[in-house]
Amino acid sequence: MSTDDAPILDVDALQQQGISAQDIAKLRTAGYATVLGVVQATRKCLTKVKGLSEIKVDKIKVAANTLCPQTFLTGAECALRREKVVFVSTGSASLDALLGGGVQTGSITEVYGEFRTGKTQLSHTLCVTSQLPLDMGGGEGKVAFIDTEGTFRPDRVKSIAERFGVDPQAALENVVVARAHNSEHQMDLITALAAKFAEEQGAYRLLIVDSILALFRVDYAGRGELSDRQQKLNQMLSRLTRISEEFQCAIFLTNQVQSSPDASAMFAGGDKKPVGGHVMAHASATRVYLRKGRGEERVAKLADSPDMPEGEATYKITVGGIMDA
């Protein structure tokens, strides 16, 4: 059976397989809140958990795989899993069409562009649309927002909620926000959210990080630290990917751009390329480049997608959030 068809098993279920409560507590403290999370972790990662020997880790892995077996699926079974994907509206019908229906659960969507292209405004719009009923293009779930640049504005959520006929106060109650102060703190917050998602099974539909690399660029400033930065970034993106699959939620990341006179054709945007290099490119299933258009128009170009062709859509930023231009 696919892990999508099974309920989320709390890590406490490992006791059924003979794992001690003390060792389970150590796993939980290290951020492993579900059995699937343990299955997805490597032995190398688990041996770094304080108090777990290699022998204990081997026993834990056997127990986790027994409770949550990972097997091959047929193409037909994969198709059934895809039918369960939820698409959360961006607020713009043209942008939704470009993305194949909206921001999808179970994977990472990244938007990148210069300032004032709508990255943060799109994040705020998704805070509301994620709460809408499924038949309105919503996700019927809560939102977690990791703010790395101090850009979250409750008033924006309120005004966008009014546009969609949602009670502004209720909309804010369904969004949890944390301000990250450095890249390590950012990782700690992501780990804490995994535990929260496990505790409130199925409650959260979307996790936003605005922006994913801002703090890394501060913490790892010189070229000599680039390798360390990319390694830490890779670990964080891997964690986010596991969360998207573990809890079937959408991961929405905003990213900055940098000038590159010799930018290759792989990047939409010519002399502007997203920060994060190949590590970022491989982690994001869907990548969208945002730029300024004529007047108040903004243009979204689909740079990479596993199931949609390249294309463009126009939109505008309003008091009520992202809308068709």
TrEMBL record:
GO biological process per UniProt: chromosome organization involved in meiotic cell cycle; DNA recombinase assembly; DNA strand invasion; meiotic joint molecule formation; mitotic recombination
Transmembrane helix in keyword set: no
CC annotations in GO: condensed nuclear chromosome
Ranges for domain RecA family profile: 84-257, 264-325
Highest rank taxon of the organism: Eukaryota
GO molecular function: ATP binding; ATP-dependent DNA damage sensor activity; DNA strand exchange activity; double-stranded DNA binding; single-stranded DNA binding
Matching Pfam families: Rad51
Family: Belongs to the RecA family. DMC1 subfamily.
Compartments in which it is found: Nucleus
UniProt name for this protein: Meiotic recombination protein DMC1
UniProt KW keywords: ATP-binding, Cell cycle, DNA-binding, Meiosis, Nucleotide-binding, Nucleus
InterPro entries in alphabetical order: AAA+_ATPase (IPR003593), Dmc1 (IPR011940), DNA_recomb/repair_RecA-like (IPR016467), DNA_repair_Rad51/TF_NusA_a-hlx (IPR010995), P-loop_NTPase (IPR027417), Rad51_C (IPR013632), RecA_ATP-bd (IPR020588), RecA_monomer-monomer_interface (IPR020587)
Major location (coarse): nucleus
